[in-house]
Write a structure and sequence with these properties.
single chain, about 325 residues, mainly alpha, about 70% helix
Length: about 325
């Protein structure tokens, strides 16, 4: 569920510390975990009334509106330069338009709980890709072991010993592909947009605008105008965009700047837990023993793939 902010986290850590926010970072961390955890439930509800591309377009539209309002309040303009906008268009596709659409298509046939767990595989894909694409990211025994453990967890979630019985292979593959798209986008941004000199808010606002434009062009080609507007799915899409995309990005900004990217990215490990609890409790989705066990193994492996934390100042603790 990440944007260019996450991929530029190392640069954010080097910026001057902003004024202390009114809310403690732990409160904002918890809010971000809840928002992104419930996003998979909102996608599921949205696809009950609207086509996947329509869900994604609405999500991006309302998310862009929130960031545009924040840019106006903070008096920040859009980035300049054709090259920058070209790279942002690719980032918008890889980090927003493509994964958001894939998750929406996936949740037509798989539970939101499974989609949330698939999302947790992003750090595993990222570690595997970084070993190939980033020469400065050297493997260690600990990280390679984490990669292997994580993918054993994926196989456990999928119930490989049962021959994937009862599993919608296409929907699951789409969710895993969406999770794979995020680290591809992060690596692309790290190589092309890490030192543009523009603020994170300005860059991500432009990125979401371009993603919205991409969906505005694609959606009419594959869907027709809704014959009626189902209220509950529409409200879910509004919440998904305004909260799960717009507000979540703003919360992520503050966390990365205040406590650093390593601590901020730990939110990834809470998302599948919350997505699973929400899907079971509110949507009545079924849960077999292999799902939570496999998810725990995935998270353990993902945690091992992350670089060790360097000591730095957070909030004085």
């Amino acid at each position: 569920m990440s944007t260019v902010t996450a991929s530029r986290a190392p640069e954010a850590a080097a910026l001057p510390a902003p004024a202390r926010p009114a809310l403690d970072w732990r409160v904002r961390f918890g809010a971000l975990s809840l928002i992104w955890g419930f996003s998979f439930l909102l996608i599921k509800v949205g696809t009950d009334g609207y086509a996947p591309f329509q869900v994604t377009f609405g999500r991006l539209l309302f998310g862009t509106a929130v960031l545009a309002a924040a840019m106006i309040v903070k008096r920040q303009g859009l980035p300049r330069g054709a090259r920058t906008w070209g790279h942002l268009a690719v980032a918008a596709l890889l980090l927003n338009a493509l994964p958001f659409s894939l998750f929406a298509f996936a949740e037509r046939t798989i539970p939101s709980t499974l989609a949330g767990i698939c999302n947790a595989t992003s750090p595993l894909w990222g570690m595997a890709l970084s070993l190939v694409a980033l020469s400065e990211d050297r493997p260690t025994r600990r990280r390679v072991a984490g990669l292997g453990i994580g993918f054993l967890g994926v196989l456990t979630v999928l119930g490989v010993w049962q021959g994937f019985h009862g599993l919608d292979v296409t929907g699951t593959a789409l969710a895993l592909l969406a999770s794979f798209s995020y680290p591809v986008g992060w690596i692309y941004v790290r190589r092309t947009l890490a030192h543009t000199g523009h603020s994170h808010l300005s860059m991500t606002g432009a990125q979401l605008f371009l993603a919205t434009l991409q969906l505005a062009l694609i959606t009419p080609l594959f869907t027709s105008w809704p014959s009626h507007f189902a209220l509950a799915p529409l409200l879910a899409i509004v919440a998904l965009g305004a909260l799960g995309t717009g507000l979540a990005v703003l919360l992520q900004y503050g966390l990365v700047a205040e406590v650093g990217p390593t601590t901020a990215q730990m939110v990834t490990y809470f998302i599948p837990v919350i997505a699973t609890a929400a899907g079971v409790a509110l949507l009545g989705e079924s849960l077999t023993w292999s799902t939570p066990i496999g998810a725990a193994v995935v998270l353990a492996g993902a945690a091992l793939t992350q670089p060790r934390r360097t000591r730095r100042r957070t909030d004085g603790n």
